[in-house]
Amino acid sequence: MNSKNKKQIYKQDGRKYIDTEYVPQDPKHREKEITQISKQIIEFIINRVSGSFLIYGNSGTGKTMSFKVAMSVAQAYLSKNDPDRKDHKMIFVTAKGTDITPLMTEICRSLDVKAPSRGISFKDYINLINEKIQKTYVHICIDEFDNLLSRTREKAEDLIYYFTRTERLSLTIITNRINLAKEIQDARVFSSLNTLNSINFRDYDPAQCYDILKERTNMTFNPNFIYDNVLQTLSKHIAIEGGDIRKGLSVLGLCAKYAEESNILTITPEIMTDIIEKYDILKDGEKPEKTINFRKADSGSDIFTPFNKSMQHTGF
Ligand SMILES: Nc1ncnc2c1ncn2[C@@H]1O[C@H](COP(=O)(O)OP(=O)(O)OP(=O)(O)O)[C@@H](O)[C@H]1O
Ligand SMILES: [Mg+2]
After folding, report:
1. Strand partners for 53
2. What is the pLDDT of residue 8?
3. What atom in ligand 1 is closest to the CA of residue 29?
4. 267 pocket-lining for ligand 1 (C-beta < 6 Å)
5. Domain Cdc6 AAA+ ATPase-type lid: where (predicted)?
6. In terms of CB atoms within 10 Å, which end of the chain has fewer, N or C?
7. Which-ligand-closest: CA of 143?
């Protein structure tokens, strides 16, 4: 692969826009959701009430992204309209791959509360947080909450109970378990979770997937790398599978990797179909860019492992 080709596929600084961690400034098709979330955060903070807000929807439908954008919208509104009242804090933590203790330690760290990272009970953490928030108001968002519920149900339920009943504190829970509320076994906890105060991130339809992926493609790649009909094939597939934009971005990243390694400048419909198929056989948790290798065979011809057979008709 020569560096000239790399330049021709990607726009200057384009790579960052295909990264799934990139947060778009003004995401399409989630305007209503972002407005609703930011209004909710502002309401909690201005009225200084305790309570909860539930965000649910399938994977890759923009929940984390929308909350992050809503948090900056709320912050901008509060700084402009309430400049003298800086006594609030918004905290965003994720429960992915973590247990209750590291999560509580992280929440404490974000609040500048000195807390040991082990050896104290959940209730002790709550007490430490309580002391700190006597002088302030805190909104905490816990992303990927279902992980916590699977790992340590009782403690996750305790967390909901205390975080929704502590004065000067409110909680947003983000989950992709649509029925999270039904899974809660403790009736006290169930009643503290205001399930009516929730927002469902509906799956994106094919046209929405196309708009979103088109925008990211335009920001990332030079024109002619992926033509509209090829992007439409990807968008339809993504929509059928539940609208996971993260997967769409990963497939686009794999297209670029394939093009770089094969020295081509345009993704044909056949290549796109093969890359989608290849992606679909990955197991949960496998990182596509690590697992899928586009390597040269000993003979010197390009092969697309292990889909080398299916790639033959593409002519590469
Ligand atoms: N409307 C949109 N506009 C632009 N990018 C989007 C949009 N929706 C989702 N994305 C992108 O798709 C990727 C996945 O979004 P996000 O991480 O917010 O999904 P999620 O709903 O939190 O998924 P999960 O449940 O797996 O955590 C991100 O890179 C995000 O920027
Ligand atoms: Mg998320």
Report:
1. 172
2. 85
3. 1
4. no
5. 210-270
6. N
7. 2
Q: What is the CATH number of domain 31-201?
A: 3.40.50.300
Q: Tell me if residue 121 falls in helix, strand or coil.
A: coil
Q: How far apart are CA 91 and CA 107, in angstroms?
A: 7
Q: Which atom of ligand 1 has the smallest separation from the CA of 175?
A: 25
Digitized pLDDT (tens) for each residue of the chain, 316 residues in all: 455 555 589 999 999 999 989 999 899 999 999 999 999 999 999 999 999 999 999 999 999 999 999 999 999 999 888 766 668 999 999 998 778 889 999 999 999 999 888 878 888 999 999 998 888 899 999 999 988 888 888 888 889 988 988 899 999 999 988 777 777 777 777 777 776 788 999 999 999 999 999 999 999 999 999 999 999 999 999 999 999 999 999 999 999 999 999 999 999 999 999 999 988 877 666 777 777 776 544 434 344 443 433 333 333 2
Residue 149 phi/psi, 5° resolution? -65, -35
Q: Residue 96: its pLDDT value, please?
A: 83
**Ligand 1 atom closest to the CA of 176, numbered from 1:** 25
Domain boundaries, the chain: 3-20+204-314, 31-201
Burial of 241 (0-12, 13-18, 19+ CB in 10 A): middle
CA–CA distance, 159 with 77 (Å, rounded to integer): 29
Mutate to test the pocket of ligand 1, among 35, 61, 211, 216 (most ligand atoms within 8 A of CB): 61
Residue having the nearest C-alpha atom to atom 6 of ligand 1:
62
Ligand 1 site, residue 242, Cβ cutoff 6 A: no
CA of 63 to the centre of ligand 1 (A): 6
**Pocket lining: 55 vs ligand 1, CB cutoff 6 Å:** no
Domain 3-20+204-314, CATH class in plain words: mainly alpha
Query: Is the CB of 14 inside a 6 Å radius of any atom of ligand 1?
Result: no
Query: Cβ of 269: how many Cβ atoms within 10 Å?
Result: 14
Q: Letter for the amino acid at 77?
A: Y
User: Do 50 and 162 contact (CB within 8 A), yes or no?
Assistant: no
